[in-house]
Amino acid sequence: MANTMMTGECFCGGVKYRYSGKLMNARSCHCSRCRKAFSSAASAYAEIDQTRFEWLAGENLLTYYPSNKDWGKYFCRTCGSTLCGVYQGEVHGVTLGCLNGEPDVTLQMHIFVGSKAAWDELPRGEVRQFDSYPQPD
Fold this sequence. Notes:
Layout: E1 4-9, E2 16-21, E3 24-29, H1 32-38, E4 43-47, E5 53-57, E6 62-68, E7 71-76, E8 82-87, E9 90-95, E10 109-111, E11 128-129
Parallel strand pairs: 3-10, 10-11
Antiparallel strand pairs: 1-2, 2-5, 3-4, 4-9, 6-7, 7-8, 8-9
């Protein structure tokens, strides 16, 4: 996948960003924390090269929520959309649902399926599934 220009925004459109790079390590997390943070069966997230990310509008509308040591999330304080993950103060990745258009990305894994909601049915054999976070090879 080549570097591509893409934009994203929150539900109300108050916060906007641009990213010109590859979306990497795309995954869907089914842990109870992500289900609550995204009000969904799972999150959909991809890592980015932070040097290719920039806020275009509404940075003053962002609220930071620390979720774990060194980790957190930025969300729009007006509409509540979770826009990105933050590691040690830097944008680490973006939520796929806030990207505009049809980005060139494919989920590579479902993580924390060992703690997914009982009503969450995942297709078999399509994408790798891990009961927790996968260990590096």
